[in-house]
């Protein structure tokens, strides 16, 4: 009995491989800033949402709280973030982006924009919009949000 072929061109594999390629290239280019892709993701969440607890960061990043703690430790040592007491709960420390993070954000954003331009080169007109809409739909379809529940 023969086994079925391995689906290396499946949607899941293609999405994973594309994400890995983008992350790897970003890390190559962002080394001049001293940022890993994981640190970049932390900064984006902090700069978009403001100070966050480590537990909330872990939720947004979809990683374990202990991993966030180690990541924040390294970022604090490098001067990207600091921990401060939460004004509503003295047991909680919030992670706050420091001036260094704000200053580097535009440089990292430019690296990301250049990378996406390179990644999307050669796509036909309208393909980016179609791809973006399709990815949003996938996220909604697989989300536990009320919007997803209403859409089903």
TrEMBL record:
The keyword Aminoacyl-tRNA synthetase does not apply. SMART domains: HTH_MARR. Gene3D superfamilies: Winged helix-like DNA-binding domain superfamily/Winged helix DNA-binding domain. It comes from the Bacteria. Keywords: DNA-binding, Transcription, Transcription regulation. GO terms for molecular function: DNA binding; DNA-binding transcription factor activity. Pfam families: MarR_2. PROSITE patterns: HTH_MARR_2. The keyword Transcription regulation applies. SUPFAM superfamilies: Winged helix' DNA-binding domain (SSF46785). Residues 8-140 form the HTH marR-type domain. InterPro entries: ArsR-like_HTH, HTH_MarR-typ, MarR/SlyA-like, WH-like_DNA-bd_sf, WH_DNA-bd_sf. One of its GO terms (biological process) is response to stress. This is MarR family transcriptional regulator. The lineage of its organism: Bacteria, Pseudomonadati, Pseudomonadota, Alphaproteobacteria, Rhodobacterales.
């Amino acid at each position: 009995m023969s086994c079925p072929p391995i689906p290396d061109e499946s949607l899941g594999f293609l999405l994973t491989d594309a994400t890995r390629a983008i992350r790897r290239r970003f890390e190559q280019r962002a080394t001049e800033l001293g940022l890993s892709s994981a640190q970049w993701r932390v900064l984006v969440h902090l700069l978009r949402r403001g100070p966050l607890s480590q537990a909330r960061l872990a939720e947004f990043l979809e990683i374990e709280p202990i991993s966030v703690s180690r990541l924040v430790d390294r970022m604090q040592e490098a001067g990207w973030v600091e921990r401060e007491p939460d004004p509503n709960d003295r047991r909680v420390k919030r992670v706050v982006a420091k001036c260094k993070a704000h200053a580097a954000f535009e440089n990292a954003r430019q690296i990301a924009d250049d990378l996406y331009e390179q990644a999307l080169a050669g796509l036909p007109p309208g393909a980016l919009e179609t791809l973006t809409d399709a990815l949003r739909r996938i996220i909604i379809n697989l989300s536990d949000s009320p919007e997803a529940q209403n859409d089903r």
